[in-house]
Design a protein that fits this description.
alpha+beta, 434 Repressor (Amino-terminal Domain), Endonuclease, Chain A, 4 domains, 8-stranded mixed beta sheet, 7-stranded mixed beta sheet, 24 helices, 47% helix
Length: 568
């Protein structure tokens, strides 16, 4: 963690302004502001670091928060380069599982580890390859699956601290070892942030998507050509995109590769050229079926999926994966469209000797199409993507989540808890009339009935946030009606949001199977995500309105254990 992020974390935890911290530390407000925005970074031994640590400790005493001055000073100095290796103490891991009343076998299953691996760590016979990541993964699992009251027994935990996930996560990681501030960021947070911030109009303008004009007639391209090495693969990939975009054929495009793309990413020009090639195929209206290689560490898999997110947003891509891991010494590439087929092979560690063949012959197209379709038959959907044209299918996706305990983190507030009077006043204020008004009111009643039926048998964990006045200017909250794919966003006034939040608190208190968590501020402004033990659904409200139903076990487990950072 950087010095700026650590300082920001302390002000959020204490609920104080920059000026208040500056007064407590005896420094100027401008100094604190520059440190928090990263414009200035002090030396680890500079007196101002000690002064800031004293100020944080003073404010912690005023607010009854357990923060020792020495602990704060050590954390700040670690951010400035004075750090020690993070190590997991097996005794502390055993103690944590005893406190949380979690079996090691359940932990192993939840983290997708072999039970013997966890047993060896508990016995001190094995150390995690990435201790910081392992500590965070354990902490996230414990927070989601342990009894909160039992976690109050953690050493150093003050009354009420178990109520905040972010605070509790740091407490558990600190208990497991040391140097908790250097735990790696959760890859899922980056993935969700990209969805939350994405705006398809801004993206297409930046990519010059409207300037992509595939000619009506194909240019003269070789019928068959061979490429070699890393540079050859890049040339072959772009040639495949051109051949597909320029041809009259409109068959689905099937793409697969388990050859690492790290070397391609080092070329600063290639990613943009590749993206333009993909954009040309999408603009032509082709559907792309991509088989992803997900049998890799989670922190490597998620950035690869992030790379494809802009294309997912078009709704023209269907992603898949193989259940079983493919042999990873002999690497393969197979891409086929109605106009071209690209095949390739390489040996791991010897990508420079890889060979690729681009062909347009009928025999090769027929053969490669048959192989690609056979691969799809053996693949599973990585995620199902719903845009407005698939609106009628979305209810089936939502039903996949129901029937099991459910946790939902809302961008704003649950639509089914809004008082009907508040809703009608919002619709009146924003001039929503006719069929659209009737559709929204009917949707509210259906959602309310579904929630009440669900709570008769299952548990529902609701996560929402309060909103400061500035949020209504910078990120105005909107009604959570993404399932209707609304053409017009319907925003709250401060009073309407407060009334809806109060109704949500009353609703949760009325049902024994409902639990409500209210964060001090939102982390995401445009996405709501729901997760059960078998699926996760990410819903984006605008730019575009889109839904991702995810069933891959590794990703679903990551959602179950996901704890977002504290919102600003």
């Amino acid at each position: 963690m950087t010095f700026a992020k650590q300082l920001t974390a302390y002000t959020r935890q204490l609920g104080v302004s920059d000026r208040r911290l500056a007064d407590a530390a005896g420094v100027s407000p401008g100094t604190v502001s520059r440190y928090k925005n990263g414009r200035r970074v002090p030396d680890a031994d500079h007196p101002v670091v000690g002064a800031v640590a004293k100020g944080v400790a003073r404010l912690a005493v005023e607010r009854g928060v357990s923060l020792d001055e020495r602990e704060v000073l050590a954390a700040l100095r670690r951010c400035l380069g004075r750090e020690t290796p993070f190590e997991i103490t097996s005794a502390n891991l055993r103690a944590l599982l005893n406190i949380a009343r979690i079996k090691s076998s359940a932990l192993a299953k939840g983290l997708n580890f072999d039970p013997s691996y966890i047993s060896r760590i508990l016995a001190g016979q094995r150390h995690p390859a990435d201790p910081a990541r392992f500590a965070e993964d354990v902490a996230r699992y414990i927070i989601r699956h342990a009894d909160r009251h039992s976690l109050a027994a953690l050493p150093g935990t003050a009354p009420g601290e178990t109520e905040g996930d972010a605070v509790l996560l740091q407490r558990i990681v600190s208990f497991l070892g040391s140097n908790a501030e250097h735990a790696a960021p959760d890859p899922l947070y980056g993935f969700l942030s990209k969805i939350d911030e994405f705006d398809i109009e801004s993206y297409t303008r930046g990519l010059r998507f409207d300037d992509v004009r595939p000619p009506a007639l194909s240019l003269s391209l070789p019928t068959k050509k061979m490429y070699e090495g890393i540079a050859g693969r890049k040339e072959a990939e772009l040639a495949f995109c051109r051949a597909t975009a320029l041809a009259a054929a409109d068959s689905d495009v099937i793409l697969y590769s388990d050859i690492p793309s790290g070397e391609q990413a080092k070329d600063t020009e290639f990613p943009e050229k590749w993206m333009l090639g993909m954009a040309a195929m999408l603009k032509k209206g082709l559907r792309l079926r991509i088989i992803h290689n997900v049998h890799r560490p989670f922190e490597e898999m998620m950035p690869e999926l992030e790379r494809y997110l802009p294309m997912y947003m078009t709704g023209q891509i269907s992603p898949y994966y193989f259940r079983e891991k493919q042999e990873d010494t002999f690497l393969h590439l197979l891409k086929v469209s109605g106009a071209a087929a690209l095949t390739g092979e390489a040996i791991r560690g010897h990508l420079a000797e890889g060979r690729y063949i681009l062909s347009k012959t009928r025999a090769d197209l027929r053969y490669c199409r048959a192989r690609a379709e056979a691969m799809l038959e053996n693949a599973l959907p990585l995620m199902q993507i719903y845009r407005a044209e698939r609106k009628d299918e979305l209810s089936g996706a939502i039903d996949v989540l129901r029937g099991r305990d459910l946790r939902v983190s809302y961008a704003s507030l649950p639509f089914f808890t809004i008082p009907e009077r508040t809703l009608t006043e919002m619709l009146d204020r924003q001039g929503v009339t006719g069929e659209k008004r009737d559709e929204i009111l009917l949707f509210r009643r259906k959602e309310r009935d579904a929630a009440e039926r669900f709570l008769l048998k299952q548990k529902l964990m609701i996560e929402v946030s309060r909103r400061a006045a500035r949020d209504f200017e910078q990120h105005p909250p909107r009604l959570d009606i993404a399932a209707l794919f609304p053409e017009k966003e319907i925003g709250y006034t401060e009073w309407e949001y407060a009334a809806h939040l109060a109704a949500t608190e009353h609703f949760a208190a009325s049902y024994g199977n409902a639990a409500l968590t209210i964060a001090p501020a939102p982390v995401f402004h445009d996405i709501t995500y729901a997760v059960s033990d078998r699926a996760a659904l990410v819903s984006k409200g605008s730019g575009p309105a889109i839904h991702f139903l995810i069933r891959h076990p590794k990703m679903v487990a990551a959602f179950r254990n996901f704890i977002p950072p504290v919102g600003e």
